[in-house]
Amino acid sequence: MNRIVLLIVWLVMFPITLCVGQSTVFYDIKFTSVWNTNDHTSVPGNAHWSKLVGATHKTAHVFLQVGNLATTGIKNIAETGNNDIFNDEVATAVSTGEADKYIDGPSLGSATGDILIPNMEVNKDFPLLTLVSMIAPSPDWVIALNGYNLLDAAGKWKTSVTLDMFAYDAGTDSGTDYTSTNMVTSPFQSISMINGLPINGNKMGTLSITLVSATKLDNLSGGNNISVYPNPVINGKVMVGNLENVSLTKVEIYNSLGLLVKSTGKNLTQNTLVIDVQDLSPGIYLMKIATEQYKTITRKLIVK
To answer: Taking the alpha carbons of 85, 91, 97, 98 in that order, is the dihedral positive or negative?
Structure first.
C-alpha cells in the first residue's frame, strides 16, 4: 500500500517539480470523440476521423483562424482528410523559424474512440499548439485547436488541460449534411463554427493535454542533463543517456501498482546505460533514477 501511495505522489508531483522550468518538455495528447445521434442528429455508417495533425509554433493564427479563409492545407484536410499540403505549410513555417514541430498523429476508424499522441515534444520558444482532424465523411468539416498556449500567465508549463472540441466549416464546400455531394463554395467563405444542423453546435469530443516529463533534468548548480529514450519503448530496450558523464548509482522501474519490477545498480561513467525491458508487459511504468550528482529523478515510462 505504501508503494502505491508513493507512486501516486510521484505521478502527481513530478511534472510540477521537475518540468515547469524546463525549456523543452513532453506532453501526452488524447482526443476522445463523442460523435453520436442524440447530439449530432445522425452518424453515417462509415463515420471516422482523419489523422490528427498539427504543429507547435510561436505566433497565433499561423495555420488557421476562425473568421479567416482556410489555407490550401486546411481545405484539403477538411474536404478529403489529406494532410500533404498542410505538412508542406508546416515545413515552410519551420524553415522560417515560425514553427518547431510537425505533429503527425493517427486516425480513428470509427465515430467514437480515442486518438492518442504520446510524448509530443514542445519547446518553450514555440509553446502554441495547433491541431486539426476531418470529421469524415463531411463536406468540409473539421475539429480544430488554434494556437493553444501551453504556457500559463507566469510562463510555466501547464500540467493538465481538458478542452471541448467543436466542429468548424472550412468554407470551401457548401454541402449541408455528412454525405452531401461535392458543391464547391464560390467564392470561398471564412472558417466558422457549425451551430446549425446536423452538428447543432454541440461538442464533438474532448482533448486532454497532459504534461509527461522534461527532456533535460538539470542539476541546480550545473548544466548536466539526463535523457530517457525511446519513450514509448518499442524495441524492448530503453536507454538512459548520460551526456556529461554523470555517475548513475541506481535505476528502478515500478509498475502501475507501485511494485518494483526491475532494478539495476550501476556506476556508469560512459554516455549511455541500456536497460532490457523485453520482459515487461505493455503499459505505463515509473522509472526512478539515482545519481551521485543529482537528487533522485523520476520519469514516466511507456512500454509498447
So the answer is: positive
- Give the model confidence (pLDDT) of 146-189 as tens digits: 999 999 999 999 989 999 999 999 999 999 999 999 999 999 99
C-alpha cell read off for 212: 509527461
Least confident of 13-17, 46-50, 120-124, 230-234: 13-17
Q: List alpha helices for the chain, DSSP H.
A: 2-19, 37-40, 72-80, 84-95
Spatial contact of 53 and 133, defined as CB atoms under 8 Å apart = yes
Question: Is cis: bond before 187, omega within 30 of 0?
Answer: yes
**DSSP string for residues in 22-41:** -SEEEEEEEEEEE--HHHHS
Instruction: Identify the structural domains of the chain with CATH numbers, from first to last.
Output: 22-212 (2.60.40.2130), 216-303 (2.60.40.3080)
Q: Are 30 and 114 in contact (CB under 8 A)?
A: yes
- Beta-sheet pairing, 192-193 with 167-169: antiparallel
At 299, give phi and psi (nearest 5°): -130, 140
The DSSP output letter for 251 is E
3-state helix, strand, coil in the chain (%, to 5): 15, 40, 45
d(CA 283, CA 253): 12
Nearest to 297 by CA among 256, 234, 241: 241
pLDDT tens per residue across span 107-119: 999 999 999 988 7
Share of the chain above pLDDT 70, in %: 83
| Cα distances (Å, whole numbers) of residue 215 to 120, 154, 184, 230, 238 | 11, 21, 46, 12, 15
| Strand-pair partners of 214 | 25
Amino acid residing at 103: I
pTM for the full predicted model: 0.68
